[in-house]
Amino acid sequence: xxxxxxxxxxxxxxxxxxxxxxxxxxxxxxxxxxxxxxxxxxxxxxxxxxxxxxxxxxxxxxxxxxxxxxxxxxxxxxxxxxxxxxxxxxxxxxxxxxxxxxxxxxxxxxxxxxxxxxxxxxxxxxxxxxxxxxxxxxxxxxxxxxxxxxxxxxxxxxxxxxxxxxxxxxxxxxxxxxxxxxxxxxxxxxxxxxxxxxxxxxxxxxxxxxxxxxxxxxxxxxxxxxxxxxxxxxxxxxxxxxxxxxxxxxxxxxxxxxxxxxxxxxxxxxxxxxxxxxxxxxxxxxxxxxxxxxxxxxxxxxxxxxx
Length: 307
Ligand SMILES: [Zn+2]
Known about the structure:
This protein is an alpha/beta fold and 307 residues long.
């Protein structure tokens, strides 16, 4: 039976509840100096605010080497009552220093992903529940091909879903050609993120035809120019018959974007996005985007634990 792998253990998807399918509690990158998400009490307060708004689960897409704070996640989940799923995987090369990348290139990336999914992250015992990777701007560079090849291998070994950051929302079809076409990952095991950042309805439909999940996440200051077109993009997909492929997330990536620091943060998804989308596609579909869809997208038939 399929289960969602949370930081407190595997659960049937139906127990996930109202879920923010793409967000970050902790994140550190040389690309975002001074804006790190690394404050434990702010993360706890943000989760409590999300819980108070009706939220029950958050999928954290922060991958390997970006300050995930995996050891802190079980206690955060227990104290706030919000279920948490965390990621293995690797982001774009720009988010790492040269030394770390050289070390990773000398090892077996797929083995690292598999071990974080099945044994745990470092010595924490916390197992990842998804593999996060990233495409490039309208193309796939060598780093993207390397990480996606490892992600596909780890997927085939574990059944884990593969979640993809699309750079500025672009490159969806290149990612699908590689992951699903060349590397044999079934479309329904792939989640594409940031589609709101490149709201081309034709590309969205072509991507949806692969059977993949389309995640609309935000808002973000950097992507304000396109974020507001999200309700129309979601409606176009629903009208084309792809309503059952859609996910929603907040994608908080900087400290200032947290609701407890004065930003929209995680509660915004339930406070404003839900009502605005209800206007576009109706309450029933929006409810399913927040519950049933993440339950299916992030559930997997995990291999039995090794003794
Ligand atoms: Zn993200």
